[in-house]
């Protein structure tokens, strides 16, 4: 400052006055830059640039109108400062236009300094423009130094231009102007430049601020309206911002959420602690992005699943001030995933069940098969005693029974599943069914092996004779299943069974039970034991294929009843079932006697129509002792020949015979008008098969393997009823 003061002290008063005037004009020039050039976009068009150039040129002319005069025709002003800065700040076109304008005016002024004046105009402009080009980053670095350099450069060039003056004027002029030109002019350039740089920076800041506001507005618009959940929470979890998706989904109004704790408002109570932990982890700023899933509680209590992406927001001091999260509703995806997992585990379970079933079945079939094959081959050996023989035969029979039970169970379960299981309702006595089952089990090996078990019929039931209409064979099957399970799963104690009549909703029902003191059934197993192939301990072997209870349940439900159980582990189990009590309308018929004795077939002829010799031989043995005359027909043709030769009293007709089938024979017999009794025998134990045989004209029906009692019963029934063909 002092330096400038002394320089100014040593200068001509005219120069000082001129400089002050010039300064005022240059300030006006800088204002032009600030108000006219910087904020307006249209000044950047060619026309705008030319106009700006004309305005700058006018300012230059005004400068030239207020010069300090060296000698007439030689004037000095600050055009060099104006044009250098114009080149630097406005660029080529405005500066060129301004320079041309000013050159014209200078020519118009004339005088001995004309060439120097024009040269200063042109060279100052060119220096400013080139400086802008060569050092494009001048104002982002140390711009004061850059401006000072430009100021000196322009004014040294200006001093050099004195060479264009008439020779005699060069030295006196130099002497007079050198001091202000190399001090005040560069300083003026720097000061004015600084002013303009500040104006430029201000404008840039202002533009940046406007852009920031605009981009923030767009960002908030986006957050507010897009189809994702968006929340901004402060460090305590307080909601600073929530978008419309959050509001719509949660069912809250904006003022119900803003300022409230997000965890308390939007999370189920039980999940708050875990989410708070995750939130604290994010606040520690260890990761830039954090992905997590939470439940989301709506105002109406419904729970959704949301997957969030969170990031931390920092203040100017880089301290984490809040957390911004964006979330997506993944409830449906979660449900689908859960269903997929369920389906997968179900598929795995059924796969597992299939293997268990196959190994179980294989075992269940091979065991009796093994006994049958092994002991029947032993029967052929010469050195066995009669006692051993009897033992072997009894083993073979037991094994056969066991095999038959499995086959029957498989047929029953398939029929139940195919909804082809039919029940045959008839009048029967409950007491008889229960007694008969108990008798059979008491004699069975199953109970004999378990010496510490007694099997009892409830004394109340023993004396209660209930006659009802139901399917007695099926009820017997149910009871047998329950009793055999009770015996199988009990080591010691008593197995009691019984029945009573109860009334429910005005209807009379029979409620029966089988109670044991066995191993019991664990709580969780109550559902699965009624499912086919399921056993409580699937890893441990028990005799049985896991079909009994599902068949039992199927039968009871077909009879219009229901089945359930009570159990305590290691204490025992009681199975109950209920069926409707349908009382017969007619006089009860005696169920005892009549059909069950040994029929007398003296003088009667029976033809066994059977292609398989073993089966024929077996039937023949069964008929031994009935005094009948037994003939064998190996196929349908032979049968017809025999029948036509002499009409038999009874034909045991195998339906599946070669040459001529049983049904064809039936047709022919009918056509020929031959009167004989026909009992069909088939290996298909289906109800439909029986019906088909009866409707085709058979009088009776037995399923293979034929049991002696069934055969006798069927024959006796025919002989008593004497049905015509
Ligand atoms: P299984 O042929 O295995 O006996 P069931 O269908 O009759 O098949 O029974 C299914 C499973 O239920 C049995 O494997 C057994 O685990 C359980 N269960 C049935 N009855 C009883 C009972 N009285 N006491 C204990 N467990 C039983």
Task: Write up what this structure looks like.
With 725 residues, this protein is of the alpha/beta class. It has 25 helices and 19 strands. Strand 5 and strand 6 (303-314) form a beta hairpin. Helix 14 (331-379) packs antiparallel against helix 15. The protein is rod-shaped, with a radius of gyration of 58 Å. The strands form five sheets. A five-stranded antiparallel sheet has the order 4-3-7-6-5, sandwiched between helices. It folds into five domains: 2-205, no CATH class; 226-329, Beta-Lactamase (2-Layer Sandwich), CATH 3.30.450; 345-415, Signal transduction histidine kinase, dimerisation/phosphotransfer (DHp) domain (Helix Hairpins, Orthogonal Bundle); 422-580, Heat Shock Protein 90 (2-Layer Sandwich), CATH 3.30.565; 605-722, Response regulator (Rossmann fold, 3-Layer(aba) Sandwich), CATH 3.40.50.2300. Helices cover 54% and strands 17% of the residues. Residues 485-486, 489, 516, 518-521, 529, 535-536, 542, 544-550, 573 line the site of adenosine-5'-diphosphate (ADP). Residues 485-486, 489, 516, 518-521, 529, 535-536, 542, 544-550, 573 line the site of adenosine-5'-diphosphate.
- Helical run tally: 25
Poorly predicted residue ranges: 1-8, 587-596
Number of domains: 5
Radius of gyration equals 58 Å
> How many beta-strand runs?
19
Query: What value does the average pLDDT take?
Result: 85
Largest sheet: 5 strands, antiparallel
Which structural class matches the secondary elements? alpha/beta
Distance between the termini: 147 Å
Q: Which quaternary structure do these chains form?
A: single chain
Portion of residues in helices?
Answer: 40-55%
Share of β-strand residues: 15-25%
């Amino acid at each position: 400052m002092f330096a400038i003061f002394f320089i100014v002290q040593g200068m001509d008063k005219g120069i000082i006055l001129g400089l002050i005037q010039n300064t005022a004009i240059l300030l006006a020039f800088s204002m032009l830059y600030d108000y006219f050039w910087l904020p307006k976009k249209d000044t950047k068009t060619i026309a705008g640039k030319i106009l700006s150039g004309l305005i700058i040129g006018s300012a230059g002319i005004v400068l030239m109108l207020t010069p300090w005069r060296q000698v007439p025709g030689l004037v000095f002003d600050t055009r060099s400062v104006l044009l250098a800065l114009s080149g630097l700040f406005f660029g080529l076109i405005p500066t060129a236009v301004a320079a041309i304008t000013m050159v014209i005016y200078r020519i118009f002024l004339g005088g001995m300094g004309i060439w120097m004046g024009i040269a200063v105009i042109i060279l100052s402009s060119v220096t400013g423009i080139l400086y802008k080009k060569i050092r494009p980053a001048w104002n982002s670095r140390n711009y004061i130094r850059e401006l000072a350099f430009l100021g000196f450069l322009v004014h040294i060039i200006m001093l050099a231009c004195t060479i264009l003056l008439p020779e005699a004027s060069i030295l006196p002029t130099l002497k007079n102007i050198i001091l202000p030109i190399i001090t005040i002019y560069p300083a003026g350039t720097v000061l004015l430049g600084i002013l303009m740089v500040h104006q430029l920076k201000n404008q840039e800041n202002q533009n940046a601020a406007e852009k920031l506001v605009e981009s923030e507005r767009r960002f908030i618009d986006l957050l507010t309206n897009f189809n994702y959940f968006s929340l901004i929470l402060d460090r305590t979890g307080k909601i600073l911002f929530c978008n419309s998706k959050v509001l719509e989904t949660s069912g809250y109004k904006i003022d119900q959420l803003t300022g409230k704790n997000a965890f308390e408002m939007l999370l189920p109570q039980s999940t708050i602690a875990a989410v708070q932990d995750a939130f604290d982890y994010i606040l520690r700023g260890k990761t830039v992005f954090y992905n997590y899933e939470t439940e989301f509680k709506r105002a109406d209590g419904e729970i959704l699943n949301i997957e969030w992406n969170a990031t931390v927001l920092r203040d100017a001091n880089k301290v984490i001030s809040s957390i911004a999260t964006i979330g997506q509703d993944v409830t449906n995806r979660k449900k689908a995933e859960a269903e997929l997992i369920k389906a997968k585990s179900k598929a795995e379970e059924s796969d597992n069940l299939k293997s268990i079933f196959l190994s179980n079945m294989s075992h269940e079939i091979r065991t009796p098969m093994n006994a049958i094959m092994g002991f029947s081959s032993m029967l052929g050996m010469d050195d066995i005693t009669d006692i051993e023989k009897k033992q072997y035969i009894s083993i073979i029979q037991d094994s056969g029974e066991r095999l038959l039970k499995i086959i029957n169970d498989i047929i029953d379960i398939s029929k139940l599943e195919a909804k082809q299981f039919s029940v045959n309702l008839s009048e029967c006595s409950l007491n008889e069914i229960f007694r008969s089952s108990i008798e059979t089990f008491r004699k069975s090996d199953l109970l004999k092996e378990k010496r510490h078990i007694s099997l009892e019929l409830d004394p109340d039931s023993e004396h209660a004779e209930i006659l009802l209409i139901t399917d007695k064979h099926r009820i017997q099957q149910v009871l047998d299943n329950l009793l055999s399970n009770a015996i199988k799963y009990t080591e010691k104690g008593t197995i009691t069974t019984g029945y009573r009549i109860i009334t429910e909703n005005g209807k009379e029902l029979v409620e029966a039970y089988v109670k044991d003191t066995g191993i019991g059934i664990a709580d969780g197993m109550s559902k699965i034991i009624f499912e086919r192939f399921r056993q409580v301990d699937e890893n441990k072997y028990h005799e049985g294929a896991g079909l009994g209870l599902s068949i039992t349940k199927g039968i009871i439900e077909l009879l219009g009843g229901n089945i359930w159980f009570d159990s305590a582990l290691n204490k025992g189990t009681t199975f109950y079932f209920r069926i409707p009590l349908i009382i017969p309308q007619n006089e009860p018929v005696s169920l005892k006697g009549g059909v069950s004795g040994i029929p007398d077939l003296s003088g009667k002829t029976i033809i066994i129509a059977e292609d398989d010799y073993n089966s024929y031989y077996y039937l023949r043995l069964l008929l031994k002792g009935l005094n009948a005359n037994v003939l064998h027909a190996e196929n349908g043709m032979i049968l017809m020949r025999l029948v036509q030769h002499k009409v038999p009293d009874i034909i045991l007709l195998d339906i599946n015979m070669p040459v001529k089938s049983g049904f064809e024979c039936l047709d022919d017999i009918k056509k020929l008008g031959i009167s004989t009794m026909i009992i069909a025998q088939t290996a298909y134990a289906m109800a439909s098969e029986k019906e088909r045989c009866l409707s085709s004209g058979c009088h009776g029906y037995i399923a293979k393997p034929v049991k002696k009692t069934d055969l006798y019963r069927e024959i006796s029934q025919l002989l008593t009823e004497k049905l015509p063909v």
